[in-house]
Amino acid sequence: MEPFKVHILGCGSALPTTRHNASSQVVELRGKLFMIDCGEGTQIAMRRSRISFANLQAVFISHLHGDHCLGLIGMISTFGLLGRTQKLHVYAHPNLTPLFEKQMEMFCPNLEYEVELHPIDPAHQKIIYEDKSLTVETIPLDHRVACCGFLFREKPTLPHIRREMIDFYRIPVSQINNIKNGASWTTEEGELVPNERLTRPAEPPRSYAYCSDTRYLPHLHEIVKGVDLLYHEATYGDDRTDKAGVYFHSTARQAAQVARDANAGHLIIGHYSARYEDESVLLNQAREVFEKTDLTDEQVVFDVK
């Protein structure tokens, strides 16, 4: 099975601390890298995590708060210094466009690779990126500014060839792709060998949902139903439920409710308020609702499975 991993680069909230970086993650699938959010310090976190700058295909910005996007222009500049030639795609709210163009003009006037900005509508659920390996879909959220999450869905792979059956029936190598795509085989004696005897089913496609800053949404579980790995912000604990409502954030318990109702395989939480010196209180509250919950932390890698 090809690697499908989520690398945590930053899991703090807006107020800087010595323990956590601002929000950023990298999704790795079939050799390609996709960044979600790019707070200050992201490129340093990439260095520490030994993530290749060259393999980054696209950046997805959930919303235009500084702790989610202020690291973008510095990272783009660094890519230029490293001699990048591959185009970089950036997906963000259209309000970023005028500021981004000014920053590019001031800080990256002679960039030798192309950066293409794709405006997205956070208010509507829509596929915004697709290649041979996956689709990326927006997840409408409810924050103080327009905000969305992102749902990464792996595309189904072809079934596995049963090598022993290929050898037994002396099937030419030239026919293997046809068999992977559903063809059966007829022997020289006229026996029809059904495809089911020649292949094993492929692994089920996997999925990862990133739910950025948002107040608790009772219907959110419907969008992320059955997701294998769910990230949901958990800025506050039960002691600050009132603050969560005022600032349009979620508590750890509310994040766990979304995971439970979605029947998610695994929940990871982050975007911790700086007031918590020990995030285990958030973990314990989440696990009271959804046991398979873990804390995010810088340089931790989660497998999507």
Provide a descriptive summary of the structure in words.
It is a single chain. This protein is α/β, with parallel strands linked by helices and 305 residues long. The chain has helices at 42-49, 66-69, 72-81, 96-107, 163-168, 176-180, 195-198, 220-223, 241-247, 252-262, 280-287; strands at residues 4-10, 24-29, 32-36, 56-60, 88-92, 115-119, 127-130, 134-140, 148-154, 160-161, 185-186, 192-193, 199-200, 207-211, 229-233, 267-270, 293-295, 301-303. α10 (252-262) runs parallel beside α11. It is globular, with a radius of gyration of 22 Å. The protein starts with a strand and ends with a strand. The mean pLDDT is 95.
Q: What is the end-to-end distance? A: 10 Å
The structural class is alpha/beta
Helix content: 25-40%
Shape: globular
Binned strand content: 25-35%
In total, the number of strands is 18
- Please give the largest β-sheet: 7 strands, mixed
Low-confidence stretches: none
Quaternary structure: single chain
SSE order in H/E notation?
EEEHEHHEHEEEEEHHEEHEEHEHHEHEE
Q: Biggest sheet, strands in spatial order?
A: 6-5-4-3-2-1-18
Q: From the alpha carbons, calculate the radius of gyration and give it in angstroms.
A: 22 Å
Contiguous helical run count: 11
Calculate the mean pLDDT score and round it. 95
